[in-house]
Specification:
Elements: H1 2-15, H2 52-59, E1 64-68, E2 81-86, E3 89-95, H3 120-124, E4 134-136, E5 145-147, H4 150-168, E6 173-176, H5 185-197, E7 200-203, H6 213-219, E8 236-240, H7 244-247, H8 253-260, E9 264-268, E10 281-283, H9 290-303, H10 309-315, E11 321-323, H11 332-335, E12 345-348, E13 353-356, E14 380-383, E15 389-394, H12 395-403, H13 408-415, H14 419-431, E16 435-438, H15 449-462, E17 472-474, H16 482-489, H17 494-505, H18 508-519, H19 525-539, E18 543-545, H20 546-550, H21 554-563, H22 572-581, E19 596-599, H23 604-607, H24 611-617, E20 624-629, H25 634-637, E21 641-644, E22 653-654, E23 663-667, H26 680-697, H27 716-720, H28 731-738, H29 749-755, E24 757-759, H30 787-790, H31 810-815, E25 834-839, H32 853-856, E26 864-867, H33 869-875, E27 882-887, E28 890-898, E29 906-910, E30 961-966
Parallel strand pairs: 6-7, 6-19, 7-18, 8-9, 8-16, 9-10, 16-17, 19-20, 20-21, 25-29, 26-28
Antiparallel strand pairs: 1-2, 2-3, 4-5, 4-21, 11-15, 12-13, 14-15, 22-23, 23-24, 25-30, 26-29, 27-28, 27-30
Helix pairs in contact: 4-26, 5-16, 5-26, 5-28, 6-15, 9-13, 9-14, 9-15, 13-14, 16-28
Length: 980
């Protein structure tokens, strides 16, 4: 063990002297070391061991134990780890078991961790670790690099940023936020740079397929769900498009402990997953037919009257009236001149007339409580303002008619399930007292995922489950830390800086009016928070989405429009153009596609669908690409500069705050950054200093940002450093500011360094993208959500003010999607026999760990596709043979794994393999068009409006089709972009 530790010390000592220094053409992903002649390698023989016990005594000694987690990793399960440090090296990480029981009778969270977390040191000290700044000296992607100093890197990058901003505007400085991030100084630092430089925040939630449009349409927010120990309280658990045994390993035990105590566990998945093997019922549904199953259940619940009628009347839109002649809501504008377009109506049985519905967008009564019982079925005739007589019905009546065709028999034909399976499932819903649906980010990756998720939420709404403890919808909620927003926006220290941030969001007059509205009960605090947030996004923050950025390329836009020809009533470009004409879309960047790209945690070229189009029409035209990363990535190989970021055990961090685990997880600095690596906060501190120095020397004019304010780069570093109060090594100060949040009362950095974790004291601020909507939870008991609406009776943040089943936006009417419905999955990529469906891998978190030898040895070690043996026999591919996967975009080569766990007609793959792990450095992403649904560009209708982290166009991957044939040595590769 002595020699091992000594070797690792030498690794650190000489990492900065690696042969990449000054070299050209040395391939990435491998270190090559040259031992200096004067270096002492120590004794040739280790000290004598007297007994075998001495080996263990040496192994089980360390200098210190630090508290840490994997803060920068896109893993939903935060876990506390002890990090053992010896001679300046993290030699071991170990799970802790320090979590408390939320309440008596409910299992605790101990212990938490997985095999990735248990070997992060393999990545941290592995061959793909970045250690010194590198500059490209050959063409992009050539692998030709030279080692440079930090001073040279900062100077050259600053000069290129100034040149691009001067010519194209600061909104062509682009950061894809990326799925790997944290809520600590790492992310706050890079966000602060982007915000103060007037750069563009490109939200990627929808583009990577993680944005839940069904929840956004139904509830008014895309992220819903409380703590995972709440699963234990449900009596009917439906895991629908989720696989916790693989993707949420530390939380999965709550499912099985609930089953032990008598809860029924149902798994709906085309694949016999690692979670399905533990289920009471597995429904191997045909891919993409989930909405049909949901509608059959909803029909059954209404048919047998197994619904919570008082809840439905108060909390849902089923009592709201609609006109039969137009198929749209009855509005005040229909009944009187000058009436509101957003005031909706219910039928009052005693008055035998329509009355104004409280809580909707146009109503000042901001409570859902009713003093009468509006019907959800019936038909009446009323006179409009022009005297015309029309028939009106509750939305519930239209819903019943809409669901009528979805009998068990018809649903069986669509889903591939048996009638008995569907009946058993529906009866389970009918008898359940506390039904809960677990539906993860993977449920959002079909073109029609919104319909699928709307159907799940319809079933839950009929049962009165949303906003009830031990029931409802678990699809990843967030505890909001408003201190993070302050940390990234403050230009001065302390109270003065925080007040300035507040006044940057609301003027004194707006603040006074908002307070008055709340006091007079014309608006709730949530109403004001949502209005302020939307105004901030529209007028202050330079934000867009990745699809919008891709569509800056006319060629990219037209290629996708050709792919989606005849899928919708109008061409894709027609909806895109209308969204911009009506100012629904952000319209950024303004003058050109991005010209400067800072990548950190994004790995965009690995992740983006059809990266060949991105590269040909946007990437190659960018003037500067910088990859700031602790690990070499495929995106880095195509960059101009690679800057080594500190690893997760080498910098102060806060793991992002998923509600599944109601604890803040702090990442302490266990060891200094490896070699010349720096944390991201310091990197941007150095960059802003250099930009400001050059801006002053050039007397750079003030920029207009993205058209939303004056951006002076001559003061950029002053603002970034809070007028000099923050030095380059002051990341912890930023962390302290982040802890000034409602949810972290009493927490300190010093305390967290000792404990590693602390339980949240509230659900945080009321920012809609992350609001849990439970103002009563103060750190005690299971964390459930949405009680703001069900217990406090506040309106939901939707157009109707209620859980929404019916949307009469003109585009939804045009597409016949006013209600959830089943639509077949389109054949993206061409008419080929296999549907290409992705899963999150057990052995990596995205591309991190994907090339780690220890993890590769626990699987087959290279990209592969799972096929049903009957399909494999038909195409003539044996188990572990290579096969060619092809469609209209070209072909790739992957190994085949036979598995009866997979439905015939489906080709499964575990995602996130790096392109350089494929021949030609082209992965399956080169075959996936990533369909865009026009409805996700809609706006101007309450909650149906572009908003960061809530509603924006995305790209769907699961509809891709391909063919499979044996690989016998033939060449594979993507078709040239011009030929597609």
């Amino acid at each position: 063990m002595t020699e091992v530790i000594s070797g690792r010390r030498r690794f650190l000592k000489y990492a900065a002297g690696a042969a990449v220094a000054g070299a050209v053409g040395i391939p990435l992903f491998h270190y090559r070391f040259r031992t200096p002649a004067a270096a002492s390698l120590g004794p040739r023989q280790a000290s004598r061991l007297n007994t075998w016990e001495d080996l263990y005594r040496q192994r089980w000694t360390w200098d210190k134990i630090a508290k840490g987690s994997h803060g920068w990793s896109n893993c939903r399960s935060a876990c506390a780890w002890d990090l053992y440090v010896k001679d300046g090296v993290v030699v071991r990480e170990e799970q802790t078991a320090t979590y408390e029981q939320s309440e008596p009778g409910v299992p605790d969270f101990n212990p938490r961790g997985c095999q990735k977390g248990a070997c992060y040191t393999e990545v941290m000290y592995g061959p793909s670790r970045t250690s010194v700044p590198l500059k490209r000296v050959g063409p992009r992607g050539s692998g030709q690099w030279e080692r440079i100093s930090w001073d040279q890197a900062m100077g050259e990058i600053a000069e290129k940023c100034i040149a691009a901003a001067s010519r194209w505007g600061t909104d062509t400085l682009y950061q894809d936020l990326g799925p790997n991030f944290d809520f600590g100084p790492t992310t706050a630092g890079r966000f602060k740079f982007q915000f103060m430089a007037g750069g563009l925040f490109a939200d990627n939630w929808a583009e990577i397929g993680d944005l839940n449009f069904g929840a956004a349409m139904s509830l008014g927010f895309a992220h819903a769900g409380g703590s995972s120990d709440e699963w234990f309280l449900s009596d009917f658990l439906v895991v629908w498009m989720m696989n916790p045994s693989v993707t949420q390993i530390p939380d999965a035990h709550f499912l099985y402990e609930a089953r032990y105590k008598g809860s029924e566990l149902v798994v709906i998945d085309p694949m016999y997953s690692a979670t399905a093997i533990h289920a009471d019922q597995w429904l191997p549904i045909a891919v993409g037919t989930d909405a049909a199953l949901g509608m059959a259940v909803a029909r059954h619940l209404l048919e047998v009257n197994a619904i919570d009628l008082p809840y439905v009347r108060e909390q849902t839109d089923l009592p709201l009236l609609a006109r039969l002649d137009t198929g749209r809501f009855l509005r005040e504008a229909d009944l009187k001149e000058g009436g509101s377009e957003t005031q909706l109506y219910m039928w009052h049985p005693a008055r035998r007339a329509p009355v104004k519905a409280p809580g909707c967008t146009g109503n000042e009564t901001r409570r859902l409580s009713l003093d009468f019982e509006p019907p959800i079925d019936g038909l009446w005739k009323i006179a409009l303002k022009d005297g015309q007589e029309v028939a009106v019905v509750p939305v519930g009546a239209m819903l019943k008619e809409h669901l009528d065709p979805w009998t068990f028999e018809h649903t069986a034909r669509v889903t591939g399930l048996s009638v008995e399976q569907i009946r058993t499932f529906a009866e389970g819903w009918a008898k359940a007292e506390r039904p809960m649906v677990l539906s993860s980010w993977g449920s959002n990756r079909y073109l029609h995922s919104d319909l699928m998720n709307r159907s799940k939420l319809l079933c839950l709404a009929l049962k009165g489950a949303l906003g009830r403890k031990g029931a409802g919808y678990q699809a990843c909620g967030w505890v909001d830390l408003e201190g993070f927003g302050n940390a990234m926006q403050m230009e001065k220290e302390g109270l003065q800086g925080r007040i300035a941030v507040l006044l940057g969001v609301m003027s004194p007059g707006e603040l006074f009016n908002a307070t008055l509205d709340i006091v007079m009960k014309r608006k709730t605090e949530s109403d004001v928070a949502l209005e302020t947030e939307n105004r901030y996004l529209k007028t202050k923050l330079c934000t867009t989405d990745v699809v919008e950025v891709n569509f800056r390329s006319k060629e990219y836009r037209e290629a996708l429009s050709r792919e989606e020809k005849d899928l919708f009533p109008r061409p894709l470009t027609a909806y895109y153009d209308e969204a911009h004409e009506k100012n629904w879309a952000p319209g950024l960047p303004r003058k050109a596609p991005p010209k400067v790209f800072f990548s950190g945690g994004a790995n965009l070229l690995r992740r983006n669908n059809l990266p060949q189009f991105l590269k040909a029409h946007i990437w190659d035209d960018m003037e500067l690409i910088v990859d700031i990363n602790p690990k070499f990535s495929f995106t880095g190989t195509q960059a101009d500069y690679i800057l080594p970021a500190a690893g997760w055990y080498e910098k102060s961090g806060i793991k992002y705050n998923m509600a599944y685990i109601p604890y803040l997880h702090y990442c302490d600095v266990a060891v200094p950054p490896l070699a010349e690596a720096k944390d991201e906060y310091e990197i941007y501190w150095l960059l802003t200093r250099e930009i400001e120095r050059r801006a002053k020397a050039q007397n750079l004019p003030v920029f207009d940002g993205c058209g939303r304010g004056n951006i002076d780069w001559k003061t950029l570093h002053q603002r970034y450093s809070n007028q000099g109060a923050l030095g380059p090594k002051d990341a912890e100060k930023l962390a302290e500011e982040i802890l000034r949040s409602d949810a972290t009362q009493g927490m300190t950095i010093e305390g967290l360094k000792k404990t590693g974790i602390a339980k949240y004291t509230a659900t945080g601020g009321n920012v809609q993208a992350g609001a849990l909507n439970n103002p009563d939870w103060k750190g005690k008991g299971v964390l459930n959500t949405m009680t703001r609406f069900t217990e406090h009776k506040e309106p939901w943040p939707t157009y109707s003010g209620r859980i929404t089943t019916f949307i009469d936006h003109p585009w939804f009417v045009e597409m016949r999607e006013q209600f959830t419905t089943h639509k077949e999955s389109p054949k993206a990529g061409g008419d080929y026999p296999f549907q290409f469906v992705s899963c999150h891998a057990r052995w990596s978190i995205h591309s991190t760990w994907r090339d780690t030898p220890l993890m590769l040895r626990l699987q087959r070690g290279e990209p592969l596709v799972w096929l049903n043996p009957s399909d494999a026999a038909k195409v003539g591919v044996k188990d572990h043979d290579y096969a060619e996967l092809y469609n209209d975009y070209g072909s790739v080569r992957m190994r085949i794994k036979h598995s009866t766990m997979v439905r015939p007609g489906v080709a499964y793959y575990y995602h996130a393999w790096e392109p350089h792990q494929f021949p030609n450095h082209q992965s399956y992403k080169w075959l996936i068009p990533g369909l865009v649904k026009p409805l996700h560009m809609a706006g101007g209708y309450g909650h149906i409006n572009h908003a960061m982290n809530r509603y924006q166009p995305g790209s769907a991957v699961q509809d891709t089709r391909l063919g499979i044939r044996p690989w016998t040595g033939q060449s594979t590769g993507a078709k040239p972009v011009a030929n597609v």
